[in-house]
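Reopening this one. Same input as before:
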Amino acid sequence: MSKLKKRSKVLSGVLAASMLLSLPVTNVFAADASVPGAQYSPVQLQAYPTKQVVYYKAGSEDIPDIDWVTSKTDLVFIPADNQADVTCAIKDADGVFWIGTLNGLQRVDFTEKDARDVVQYMAGARYLYGADDNVTGLASDGAGGIWVRNALGVTHIAMPKKTLQEKSEIYEKITGDVHTRRGMVTGTTVTFTETDAAKQYVDYNSPTGVFTSTPSTSDNDGLWTAMYAMGEIFRYQALKTEYAHPTVKQQAEINVAKAAALKATKAVLLLDYVSGRGNGFPARSYMLTSEAGAQTSDGTDYGYQSTNGFWFHSVMDGTPNPNAIVPSMVQEGKTPIGYSIVRVTKDSVTKKGDTLFPSGGHGVMNYNGVGLSPDSIEAINAGRSGQPQLGTDLKTLVDFYDEGDSEIPVYQVMPVITQKTLTDNAANKTVSEDKTTTAANKPLFQLTVPIYEKIPQFFNDLFPASAIAADGYIDQNQIVYKADTSSDEVDGHYALFMTAYKYLCDDDSDESLVELKTYIAEATDRMTNLIIQDRNYFIKDATGKSTQWSRWLSKYFNDSLAVMEGQQLWAANVGVDGDGNDALSYGYEDGPLNALEVMAALKTAAYVTKETYPEDAARFEAEYEKAFDGDYSKEDEFENGKGYIGMALDYIKRRIVRQATSAYDILGQHVATSEQVASESGYGDAGSADEYSNINATIHNDWTQYINYSDEELGWFPVYQLVVLEEDQARYDQIVASFDQWFENEVREENPFYTFLYQLAHPEKSDVDLDSAVRFLYRMPEYRFTYTARFDRQDIFYIEPGNRDKVNNQTNYALPTDERRITKDNSNPFVADAPYSADANFNYNRYNMEDGTPFTLPYWFGRLYGMIEEVQN
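Same output, byte for byte:
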C-alpha cells in the first residue's frame, strides 16, 4: 500500500482476493435466476434505524419549546482532559450517548451489533442546519432520536426502523416524481415544496410535501437509465420468483415493477433509433427542441447552443441536404428521407482530441476528436464545386509539432467552421468556441448526416402528444440528439438488452414484451454489425471515423507494445521507447475493460439474435471465440478481438505500467527512489503536484492509487453478462479471474454493486462479506441530496490523493454512505470533500439529488440471486 502522510498512522492490511473457482458451470442462469452450485446463504434482512431529518431555521415559530442540554456531565466514558472540543452531551433513555462538538454530532451506542456502527458521525448540511457544525444544545426526543441546535437553526434527527424494501419504495417514488425524463433516469436539481402553509420548516417525509424537478439531458442518459432499468427487471423477476402464487396485492407489485422496467428499457432502446441513421448507431442522449438545453442563441440551427457536446438536429421538412453524404453514412439501396445538421457547440467547433498512437503521426486519423476523415472531406468537397474547399480554404488549426527547428501546424476540418475560427487561426494561432453565429452570420460549414428511417411508433408512448406528427410517427423535426457516443453508453445498452431479453421478455402473451423483444434483437444486431463492420472494432460517427471513446481495436490498446517490451526499463514497468519517451498507446490502460466490453457485446449479441438473425448470431459467436484463441496482438498487423481474454487478465499489470510510466522522469528521467521522493519539498501535501502520488505509489507497487472508479463501475456490466451467459468452464474461469483483479480494490469499498456480483461469479464461496454490503444499504440516506460531508475527523487516517483526485486526500477506509457525500457509483468513495462553510441561507428547498439506482439495482440483484432475503409478513 501507499505510504501514509506523516501526520497519520500506518494503514495496515493488504488487499487480496482469491481467484479460485472449483464448481462446474452446468448451465447459464435460468429465468428464475437460480445459481448452480451456490454455497452461500442469504443475509436475513431486518428493519434498521434510518436517519430522517427535519430542518428549522433559527427564529422559526415552529421550533418546539425544548429544554436544551448545554452541559456535558453525561459524558462519563471520555476523560475530561479529552473533551476540549465537546460542547454538550446527553445519554438518552435507551443508553445511547449523543455528543455535540465544535465539529459535529456523534451518536455512540455500545449495544450496536456491528462495531463499525457504535460511533456514528453527523455533520454538514445533511444533519446540522446550514452546515454549521458547532453544536450548542441537545435534547432527546424520547423515541430514539435527537434535537440538535446550532447558531443557524435546529434539526430533528429521528431514527425510525425501516426495512430495505420500505426504503426501496421511497427511491422508486422519488425516481418517478423527479428523476425521470420520458423514461430516462439520472440525477437532477430537485425542488421541495410544503403545501401545508402552517409548516414553516422542511420535512422531506411530510405527507403534504411535494418534490418536483425539470430533469435535463446528461452525458450518458442511456448508461444511467440502463442501470435503473436493470434494477427494475431484477425487481420484476425477484417478485415473480418469491411470489409463486401471488395475491392480488402481490400481483400489483409485480405489475408495477414490470411497467417501470418496460418504460426504462424502451427509453434506452429508443437511443438506438432516435438518430434515424438506420445503421445501429446508439445516441448518447436526445432532447426535444422545446427543452431549454436545446435552445440556440437565435432559435435556428445556426445559433450557438450552450448545452455542450456533439449534437444534431433532425430536419424532416423537405429541405434539401446542403452537403454530400460522407461514405460511412451511406446506406446502400436506401433513399434519405431527411437529414440532421450539427449544432454550433463548443465541441463541434473545438474538439480536436488527443493523439492516439505513438506511431500514428499527425494526421486527423491519429486524433480522437471530432475532426472529419479524409474520405469524408473528399466526398463533401465533391458537392461544393465553386465553393470554398474543406481542408484548404476551410480548416481549423488544432496543434503544432516540432520538426527540427521548425514548428509545423496541424489542421483539421471540424464539424463546424466559422469566420471567427478562421480569424483565430490566422491571428492567434488557436481556435476557440464561437458564440456569435446566427442565421444572419451563418457558419461557413456545418456537417450533416442523412436520415433514412422514421422512429418506430413503438416508442410513441414516451413522448407528449405535441411531439407526435400528423402521420402518427414521432415528429423528428423536434429531435436533437447527441452523437460522439462512448463505450460507456454502449456498455449499458448491451447489459440491459441481455437482462431484458432474458428476464423481462418472459411472457409471450404480452404484446408489449413481444414487441420489445423484437426491437432488442434488431437493435443489438445492428449495433454489433456496426462495431465489427470490416472488423473495425469501433463505432463510426458522422465524421467518417470512430467516436472519441468507442474503440475496441487492438492497436488502440497495444501500439508500440512490442517496442516497449524490448527495452530494459520494461522490467521496472516503465513503457518507453529506445529514446526514453513514453510509448504507451493512448488506450493502453483501457485494454482490460474494453476487452471485456467487446467480448460481452459479442456474447450478448449471439444470445439475443439467435432466434431472429441466426446467421449473424453464429458470426458473433465465432468472433467472440477469437478472444480465447491465442495471444493478443502487440505489433502490426494487429488482429482485433484475438486473444482479448489475455488482455482482460492484464488489468493490474496495465495499471502498474501506466502509473510507473507517468512517474518516470518526474524527478529527472529515471525510476525514482523513496529517498528522492522524501527529499522533495511539499511532497504528499494536499494541493501539491499530484504527480508525486504516481511516484510514491510506483515505489510501493500500489496500483490502487491509479484507479479509475468510473471504469470500475463500467467493468461490472460485461462481467455480469459473461458470468450469466458463458457455459464453458475454462472460459468462465478466465472471465472470473479477470474480475477478481478488479475486486482486489472493490472489496474495500463494501459496495453491494460489486460484492453481490463477486458472489454470483463465485457461487462456491461461503465467506464473501455480504454483511458489509448489506450495511452499505442500511446506511444509505433516504433522500440522496448531494450535501457535502465533513472529513477532518479524528477517526480517519489520510493517504495522499489518488492520481485522478488531484488535490483531495483519500480516507483510509470507506465511510458509511450516510456520512459521506452522495454520488453515483462512478467516483472514488475514499476521496475527501473540500472544506465547507456554514450558510445561514442554505436552501433546503432546492438542491441536487442523485437517483436511487445505486440502492435499487444491487438490492433487487441480491434478492433475485438469493444473497439477501426480506422477512415476509
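So the earlier flakiness isn't reproducible anymore. For the record, Residues 357 and 585 are 5 Å apart (CA to CA).
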